[in-house]
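Input sequence (317 aa), recorded before submission:
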Amino acid sequence: MNKLEQLRQMTEVVADTGDIKAIAKYQPLDATTNPSLLLKAAHLPQYESLISEAAGSVRSSKISDAEKVNVLVDKYAVAVGCEILNIVPGRVSTEVDARLSFDTEASLARARRLIRFYEESGVSRDRILIKLASTWEGIRAADTLEREGINCNLTLLFCDVQAVAAAKAGVFLISPFVGRILDWHKKVEQRDSFDAEEDPGVLSVRNIYRMFKSKGLSTVVMGASFRNAGEIEALAGCDRLTIAPELLAELAGDDGPLERVLSPDDSADFVDCDYRDEADFRFQLNANAMATEKLAEGIRGFVTDQAKLEQILVGYL
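Predicted structure, token format:
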């Protein structure tokens, strides 16, 4: 078996893309999308008819032009999600506008609208994960949504206190970022590379995974944002891993052995983490320079791509 086939025996593989062809080729369990991936997908010819159809349903609505754009973006995201769900047997993750990352009530409204659009398209909520940034406000929104039967994927997660807060909120899944953590440490420590066994992103996800299993927490840990196949191999056995098409191809083309690194009964030591309240959560997050900087940078990046996506879509109205 190649390494991708071996990985599937111990980890649920998720595709980190909106490219239908790539998803069909690698047949993942789930797929994840975000504003950056939806922006890339908007340039693909197979999505033009979906955008046109979504725009037609919005064009005559008696709402402001600004709100038409917001609705069109959500309808486009749902249309892409529906196409993906025709291929994957599991779920698709669809992200709430990152500009709402610090507004719990607005995040709830957008999440509920996304679910309504999916249900109007004949897709039940048990096939959707609503993605929210791992801010205090995003986690609070997820807490409410989970109690409404809407499962969530907490993204832009860079440290233990974000992970623990998400688990306490009962979220279905967290997406701790690996490659972006590595990026920060390479820049700050002025290093060109890290071996997988000392990769700060890998070590962060391993610690979160072992902490969750030791505490009996049911929240799924899904490593994300990989820079190389070595990071993926170093997390073999994690609950889920969301992987970009180019790295899926690399794993599929490698017939070498792949050893399991993580398992639910792992007895390895871990660094524990907890927090008392909102103030303590914010203090711990602020004390982690990497997590604070990468969370802010990630939100800014998604906001930028959301604006670019809107510029494309507004031309269809």
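Checked by second reader. The mean pLDDT is 96.
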